[in-house]
What we know:
256 residues; 8-stranded mixed beta sheet; globular; binds glutamic acid; transferase; kinase
Amino acid sequence: MDIKRIVVKVGTNVITNKDNRILHPILKELVRQISVLYERDIMVVLVSSGAAIAGREVIGDTNITDASTRRQVYSSVGQPRMMRHYYSLFHDYGMRCGQVLATKRDFDIGVHRQNMINCYEGLLSEGIIPIANEDDAVSLTMSMFSDNDELASLVAELIDADRLIILSDTDGLYTGDPDDEDSERITEVSCNQDVEQYVQASIKKEGEGRGGMASKLKIAKSTASKEIPTYIANGKRQNVIVDIIDNKEIGTKFIL
Ligand code: GLU
């Protein structure tokens, strides 16, 4: 089957270092790969986290005691910072990008959902790369996604994507500790296969950002069950997105 559109989700752990600073070379490598696919007529929707951390990077400590409000403020400042990085990187590659923020309610059936479809279809038809994130400045409690993995899955379904690629800081699902040489990477999982026992073993570190391997596994299986092959792979690996599209055996692939 011809691949025409894919969704790539990049988590906070991929685009930040251990001091919680944004890693510009990683953003650049992501954009470079998206431009390679663009040249092949494959459009990417990029679901990027990083708003809260990019805000904290500039604001630092605050006097705000309420954690939710603090997250809102960090995200409000950080989201345009992330977009400024992406905007200028895409510009360097002669491409354009646009921002689509959403809360969970926007995916409910009805006018909101249709508005989102129109927006994504409009951007894609113009060759503009949509960059999605949760609207963290206003999404709280009921309107919150469990994490950006859930958002990425909903976007993949919404735009009828041919693939979903979830980039994390591990190479996929492992039978044991990924650093242990006896552990093996599980290359393919069907969506009704029981692999939950491997989740704990596959976790290297779960720093900033919500989500985590258990959530990724659940989301990957449910997306695959909707006939969208889904990958969990290492976003710090060079050329990872292009290699997956070229069918190299990378990460863990989830199929129907
Ligand atoms: N939307 C959040 C951000 O951009 C991240 C959510 C997640 O970690 O999944 O900071």
